[in-house]
């Protein structure tokens, strides 16, 4: 965790205001993040669903958004997409507890500026939102390991195959039992 006082100040955001929409269905996490972002100078509005997030975007499109990927009523990327249509200069970050490479790519294509796995630190979120135009935030201190990247790829193919082990093994050119052993284990760090 980085101490905000010792970190260099990020470059100014492309928007002149610091309005922030947080769309998160985990109430306690949403409240903690909202308080932390208010302490960092943001004017925060929260929403607990895609529908609420879309309403907030229609009422007053914020300069920044932090959106959970999976919400009870749909995909948080719909909020990012709507925000980018209403306010092209807005900067959004997608948070998820179910991170994989495919969803990260999709998030960026739909207009998200960055993609972070939960639990995300408020300093990391603020740094991502406030990174200078055309710049990305600093790379993480502990990036995903090669084993984790492999595991993520296997999980993606498994999901795309409708959680069919035999079909996934065939497409990955892997023995079915080997795949079953990999799927039964926890994700590597």
Structure notes:
With 189 residues, this protein is of the alpha/beta class. It folds into two domains: 19-130, Response regulator (Rossmann fold); 146-184, Arc Repressor Mutant, subunit A (Orthogonal Bundle). It is built from eight helices and seven strands; from the N terminus they run βαβαβββαβαβαααα. The chain has helices at residues 27-39, 50-59, 77-86, 101-109, 122-130, 146-160, 165-172, 176-184; strands at 19-23, 43-47, 64-68, 70-71, 74-75, 91-96, 112-117. A five-stranded parallel β-sheet has the order 2-1-3-6-7, sandwiched between helices. A two-stranded antiparallel sheet has the order 4-5. α1 (27-39) links the parallel β1 and β2 (43-47). α2 runs parallel beside α3, α6 crosses α7 and α7 crosses α8. It is elongated, with a radius of gyration of 18 Å. The two termini are 18 Å apart. Residues 1-15 have low confidence and may be disordered.
Task: Note the beta-strand portion.
Answer: 15-25%
Shape: elongated
Number of domains: 2
| The top level CATH class name of the largest domain | Alpha Beta
Estimated structural class: alpha/beta
Q: State the separation between the terminal residues, measured CA to CA.
A: 18 Å
Low-confidence stretches: 1-15
